[in-house]
Each structure stands twice: as structure tokens, then as C-alpha cells.
Design a protein that fits this description.
Blueprint: H1 2-20, E1 28-38, E2 54-64, E3 69-81, E4 90-103, E5 111-124, E6 130-144, E7 147-158, E8 165-175, H2 178-187
Antiparallel strand pairs: 1-2, 1-8, 2-3, 3-4, 4-5, 5-6, 6-7, 7-8
């Protein structure tokens, strides 16, 4: 028996080498299995009587007809325990089968179940030759491309009395398998074309910024301000700056970037957030020039905050009338006649005058040039007649315009000038 097994393995090795040297074999494979043969349990014995199991060897060819259907021709030899005569009676058997396999094949699967059925002829060296009908199940476990570890169990019905038996096999199946290769190739997905979503010439798998066009030296990321630092590293991506300051500018050159410098246009120190050390409120105005040294404000307002409660354009700290709108030239206080003298100090708030005369017109002043001094001119801003105390009579009906209900149409006194 040992010689038989060694010889069979040698034949299998030579056959495998020969077939591998051939061109495509259309799905032809070789099988070799170690067999465990049970002639006792199916003929009055016990299934659990494992001592009655004996060994054998099977070699064979298998050919795929379709993806799922294959035919096989296995040849086997072995020793079985005979139920005839004494319990220790053993006999040698030899056989050849023709079987059909249906494989539940799925390309790429690691385990392929199958069922099998067929017909075989068995020669008994000490007994009666007989025909047997095997039916069985099995599993192929993929170990490598086209290589499987195979387990198979068969129930074999003999046409001779008392010859039913069980065969169990464990071994190796190798497909030279151009058919399998073709089927595997059907399932292969062609490699996808490289994608460049932002169109910058750098494919997405290499582009750190695949949705933004960028530069090759920055792995596809942009440098908007062109300062040599890509935007994702640049703290000021839209303002040209230095690498030392993470891409941010330093307008006053004091070593503090503008985005962190509280006095970006005045040289200061990093310890004082970019402002001069003698600037307590960090508004960029030295304490000795700052009207509000402890409260930050713009230089245009003397370093004080611009608060304008009355909205007249004069900050409250400069507005002498912070709650009443007034022009800037009167320090935010109202000047009704516009003579530059605030109403609070103007003795003639409705008549333009001079500051020397407390806001009232000078004695010989004739604002409207009608020859009537403002002091007696009832209409100091409009040329008029002395007859009407300096007021005009536009329609000439003898009623000055200040009393004429229709100043541009002549009328009668009785009708108020209309």
C-alpha cells in the first residue's frame, strides 16, 4: 500500500509538471486525496466503529464544462475491512469513477461548495467486482490562485449485495484553469482614470487641496498672496507677508505682525503688543501726547474715544453741548444765525453779528446793502426800502412783503395786499 501511495504521488507530480508546461487547458485540474473507507457501518456495523475505517488514495482529473459544472474521473486504491468472515479480514480494492460535479462557484470566493454524483467500477482483490453509484458533497477551500484544499464525502450504493459503503477524502485540487482565469478577469474592474477635480494638473490622490487649484510645489494647494507660504499654512492668506510671521505683514517693522499688532503703524515692542512702551492705553499715541492716556482713542481725536451723543460730528470730549447738535466751529453748540457765536453766548441769536458785539450786528453794519443799518432794518438780510423800515415791496402795492399776503401780486390794503 505504501508503494502504491508513493507511486501515485510521483505520477501526480510528473503529470502536474507536464500539464503546467502546456498552453491553456480550458479548466483542467488535478486532484489527489487521502481516503478513509468504511464498508462496515452500511452493512450491519456501527458508524462510530472508527477502527473499521481503513485508508486509501485517490488521484484524478477534473474538467470544468461551465462556470459551475465539471466532470471528474478519479482512480482509487485502498484497503477496507470486510464484514464477511472474521472481523479482522481485510481486502484490497481498486476502482475508477465517472462523476459530475455542480460547484456553487462565485468568482473570488474563498470557499466553493459542490455536490457530486456518478457511476464507478470497483475491483475487489478478495471478493466480487461490482458497479457502484456514488453521491456526495464537498468543499473547496481556496489556498492560492487556482489551488484548493478539498474535502469530499460520498455514500456509494453498490449493485452487488452487502457492498454499500462510505468514502471520505481530504486532499488537494489544482486547476490549470484558463477558464478560472478568464472568469476572474471578468470580475476585475479596470483601474479608474486619475481624477483631477480642480483642474490644476495634480491628480486628487496626490493633491492636498483637491477642490482648489494650486501649485505643484505646494502639493496642489494655492498661495493666494504669493508670499511663498500656501494658504493652509498662511495666517494672512490674502496679504503678502513673511515666512517668519506665518505669512502676515509687519507694516511698522517692529517684529509684531499686523494681525497681532495693536499699533500696526507705530514701532513698538512685542511685550506691549506692538505698541510703544510709554503708551498705557495702546492706542499708538504716547502718554505725553494723549489727551486720554488711559482710554484708547484715535489720533484724530487726541487719543480719546470718539463718542458723539448728539450726533453732530463733534466728539463728546470736545463738545461743549454734548446733548444738543451744533456745528464743529462752535464746539458742538447750536448757532441759529450762523455767525460763529453759539446761541448761549449770542445776544442776538437770530441776527448775524460779530463776536466783538456779542453776536449782534455792529451799529453801522448793513448786511443786505440797502442803505439801512441792521440796527433799524427789520429785514437785515433782504434789501428793502426805508419807507418800510428796510423791508422790500416786491409787487409795489404799497404793502411791504412782511405784511403782504400776496407779495408778488399787487393788491389792496383792505385785502391784505391781494
Amino acid at each position: 500500500m505504501k508503494r502504491l501511495i508513493v507511486s501515485a504521488l510521483f505520477v501526480m507530480t510528473l503529470a502536474s509538471a507536464a500539464i503546467q508546461a502546456q498552453p491553456e487547458s480550458n479548466g483542467v485540474g488535478l486532484t489527489v486525496k487521502a481516503l478513509f473507507l468504511d464498508y462496515i457501518s452500511q452493512n450491519g456495523g456501527e458508524f462510530t466503529d472508527f477502527q473499521s475505517y481503513h485508508s486509501g488514495l485517490e488521484i484524478g482529473l477534473i474538467k470544468k464544462i461551465t462556470e459551475n459544472l465539471a466532470v471528474a474521473v478519479p482512480i482509487r486504491a485502498g484497503v477496507v475491512q470486510s464484514h464477511e468472515g472474521t472481523d479482522d479480514f481485510q481486502k484490497s480494492i481498486y476502482g475508477i469513477d465517472g462523476t459530475v460535479q455542480y460547484q456553487f462557484y462565485n468568482p473570488g470566493a474563498d470557499v466553493v461548495p459542490f455536490i457530486t454524483a456518478g457511476v464507478g467500477y470497483v475491483i475487489e482483490r478478495e471478493g466480487t467486482n461490482n458497479i457502484q453509484v456514488p453521491v456526495g458533497i464537498g468543499l473547496n477551500f481556496r489556498m492560492a490562485d487556482r489551488a484548493y484544499v478539498t474535502w469530499q464525502s460520498e455514500f456509494r450504493v453498490s449493485l452487488e449485495d452487502d457492498r454499500n459503503n462510505l468514502h471520505h477524502g481530504l486532499g488537494f485540487t489544482y486547476y490549470l484553469g484558463s477558464r478560472e482565469e478568464r472568469e476572474m478577469k471578468k470580475e476585475e474592474i479596470p483601474p479608474a482614470e486619475p481624477i483631477d477635480s480642480d483642474g490644476d494638473g495634480i491628480t486628487d490622490d496626490l493633491d492636498l487641496c483637491p477642490q482648489e487649484p494650486g501649485l505643484e510645489q505646494f502639493d496642489g494647494c494655492p498661495d493666494t498672496d504669493g508670499d511663498g507660504l500656501p494658504d493652509y499654512k498662511d495666517l494672512c492668506p490674502e496679504n503678502f507677508g513673511s515666512l517668519e510671521l506665518n505669512g502676515c505683514p509687519d507694516s511698522d517693522g517692529d517684529g509684531v505682525s499686523d494681525n497681532e499688532d495693536e499699533c500696526p503703524n507705530m514701532v513698538g515692542s512685542p511685550d506691549n503688543n506692538g505698541c510703544p512702551d510709554n503708551d498705557a492705553d495702546n492706542d499708538g499715541i504716547p502718554n505725553d501726547l494723549d489727551r486720554c492716556p488711559t482710554v484708547a482713542g484715535p489720533a484724530s481725536n487726541g487719543g480719546c474715544p470718539e463718542i458723539d451723543a448728539d450726533g453732530d460730528g463733534t466728539p463728546d470730549n470736545l463738545d461743549e453741548c454734548p446733548n444738543v447738535p451744533g456745528p464743529r466751529n462752535t464746539l458742538g453748540c447750536p448757532d441759529t444765525d450762523g455767525d460763529g457765536v453759539p446761541d448761549a453766548q449770542d445776544r442776538c441769536p437770530s441776527s448775524p453779528g460779530s463776536a466783538l458785539n456779542n453776536g449782534c450786528p455792529e451799529a453801522n453794519q448793513d448786511t443786505d446793502g440797502d442803505g439801512i443799518p441792521d440796527t433799524v432794518d427789520k429785514c437785515p438780510n433782504r434789501p428793502g426800502l426805508s419807507l418800510y423800515s428796510g423791508c422790500p415791496d416786491t409787487d409795489g402795492d404799497g404793502i411791504d412783503d412782511s405784511l403782504d399776503a400776496c407779495p408778488e401780486e399787487a393788491g389792496t390794503p383792505a385785502n391784505a395786499g391781494c
